Structure formats: structure tokens, C-alpha cells
Amino acid sequence: MFLLENIIRENISLMKAYSSARDEYKGEARIFLDANESAFGSLTIENYNRYPDPYQLKVKQKLSDIKQVSIENIFLGNGSDEAIDLIFRAFCEPAKDNVILLPPTYGMYQVAAQLNNIETIEIELSTEFDIDVEKILSAVNEHTKLIFVCSPNNPSGNQIADNKIVNLLNNFSGIVVLDEAYIDFASSPSFLDRLLEFENLIVLQTFSKAWGMAALRVGMAFSSKAIIQIFNKIKPPYNINELSQQKVLQALEFFPKLRNIIEDIKQQRVFLNSELKKFDFVLKIYPSDANFLLLNVENAVEIYNFLSKNGIIVRNRSNMPNCKSCLRITVGTKAENLELISVLANYSILKKNKNLTFN
Ligand SMILES: *Cc1c(COP(=O)(O)O)cnc(C)c1O
Asked: Which run of H or E residues covers position 76?
């Protein structure tokens, strides 16, 4: 049984939030002399002399319309990375609690765990990168606070079946963090539609991938009102800067166009897949619900180096569990993908002629 008071750290439960000037006076006024900002404007053309909205309500209102989730169920972070860190800080007692990770997966869960001095229990995904619910649940002990599930998973690209995630949610008395960074490219819908069914679910999404706004550093966490209130209490007061809020709001206003971009990326994913599988050094391409492909190749290091010498950088994921000799390739534009294919075709010819002198 999930009970938030059993999960939250005592110091977090007891702490009082910082009260900013904008917390203490929220209305409109003629003259604001309460926050020690400069009343003299900025040196830039536009003025940035006032602190931004600490709760990003304009962005959240628009997001709430688009995602069909109430504002009270939305948290915005300085990237998903901030949300991940706050989740550890809110729920995991350093040097005492642990979390379950399912490698190969996104590296930041491990980094945030170490940063917060939290033990990680690793349950590897299968060779096809699926989760084993029984095995995960049997690894849970009294100090296990979180299970991180990345779906579609980075670096494998596959989505985890809904019933398995529901099974975890129903049988774990801690929190399931479901990272949906790549959900816009996936075939099955987001768990956001079912957010209110589960008190122990946190869904993470981001503006860094499909939305194309990685430079702005804005991530989303969706959860129960009670959990969102905890994040709002412990976050840095002005965690999303004014420029990022403005630009994300602008992007949200163009939301209908996003579908076309996602369709283009998915089409390029199909194209890339069909071209890559023609090379005999490509041994396997894993099915992808994301904007990248994981490839098992004959010699990952050699291919990585050849591409890199030709100005194309991919990610060598060979050191991750079940990813031996695997490269992760992000889907680029049509022109970029064509160039990748053409460089790989050169590699193939040189290899056949045993003319490789680039190692
Ligand atoms: C890229 C990525 C993110 C996004 O992180 P941001 O901090 O929002 O840029 C989150 N989770 C996974 C699995 C990712 O691959």
C-alpha cells in the first residue's frame, strides 16, 4: 500500500519553503519595491530586471490545455534532470534508502543517486530490453523508495508494455518514476491519461527532444497534487528563467505544428532503418519507438571512428549491459541521414577491399 507519509523524508516533510517576494504578494501593483530588483531596467534591448514567475503559471495553463492535466498536477524543472534530482531529495534518505534501476538505461538516474548518496539496485533488462516485473518486485526491500522505468527506453528505444508498468504501480509501495522523454515518437499513448489512477506515479517528459528546445532546459513532471506540492516546496524559487518561460510558451502556441515534425522524424526513422539494414556489418537494428536507433554492428569502435573521421558523431553504447558492439544513432534530417548512409557505404567498400587504415 502506498502512503505518501511513509515515503517522504522527515526533514522534507518538516521543512518550510522559502517565501519569495512573489509568494508574499501575488497581485498587480503600480510600483514594486519588494524584491531588491533593479528598477532601472537592463542593459539589453529587452528588460530582464524582474524575477520570473516562480510557478510558471502561463506555461502551465497552456500545457494543462494541451496535455489535459490540471495545473496542480504539473511541475516544471530546469530540465528533467532537475526533477530527477528533486525526486531523490524528497524521498530518499542518504546512506539508508535505495532505488531500483533497470540498465541499460538513462545515465542520470545513477548520477543523481550517487550525488544524493543513495544505493542503487540494478536489475538488468532482458536481451530484448524488456522488464521482468517479478524479478524487480522481489528485489524490493524496506528501504526501496523508487523504481525508475524509462519508456521508450534510452538507449534501446523500446516501449515497456502498459500492463507491466501497471503491475509495478499496483504492487510497489514506493514511487514508480516513468520517464517518457521519447513518448512523442512512440506507438502507445502516454501514461498521463491514467495519472490520477495511481498515487505513486510520477511521469517525466521534456521539451528537449520532440519539442526541439534542449537549450532552454525545461522538463516536466506530472504527478498527484500532493507530490507536486512537495516539489514546489523544495525547488529553487525561480528555477525556470524568464527567457525559457517565454520561449516555451511560444512553442506551446504552435503545438499543432509539432505533429508534422514528429511525423517527419518517424518517417526518417523508417528510412534510416531500411537503409542501414542493407549493410552486412549491421547485424541487428532494435525496434525503436524513439528518435534514435540502436544497432548491433560487427565492429562498433571501428565504425564509430570511421564516422567520426568523416565528421559524423554517433554514440557508442557498447559498454552498457546487453549492448555489446552497439551504436546509438539519432535520427537526423533527410540530408543528414543520406550523408550518414553514404559515409557508411564508403566504409563498406573500404572494408571489402581491406583498405582500412584508420584505426
Ligand atoms: C534526453 C533525456 C531526458 C531529457 O533530459 P532534460 O534534462 O529534460 O534535457 C530525460 N530522460 C531521458 C531518458 C532522456 O534520454
From this structure: strand 74-77
Q: Quick one: 256-352 is in which CATH superfamily?
A: Aspartate Aminotransferase, domain 1 (3.90.1150.10)
**Domain ranges, ordered by start, for the chain:** 4-253, 256-352
Q: Is 4-253 assigned to CATH 3.30.9.10?
A: no
Spatial strand order of the sheet with 144-150 comes to 74-77, 219-222, 201-206, 175-179, 144-150, 98-101, 119-122
For ligand 1, is residue 288 a contact (CB within 6 Å)? no
Model confidence pLDDT, tens digit, residues 289-338? 999 999 999 999 999 999 999 999 999 999 999 999 999 999 999 999 99
pTM (predicted TM-score): 0.97
Q: Is the CB of 79 under 6 A from ligand 1?
A: yes
Quote the ligand 1 centre to 181 CA distance (angstroms).
Answer: 6
Does residue 219's CB lie within 6 angstroms of at least one atom of ligand 1? yes
Ligand 1 center to 222 CA (angstroms): 15
How many A from CA of 79 to the centre of ligand 1?
7
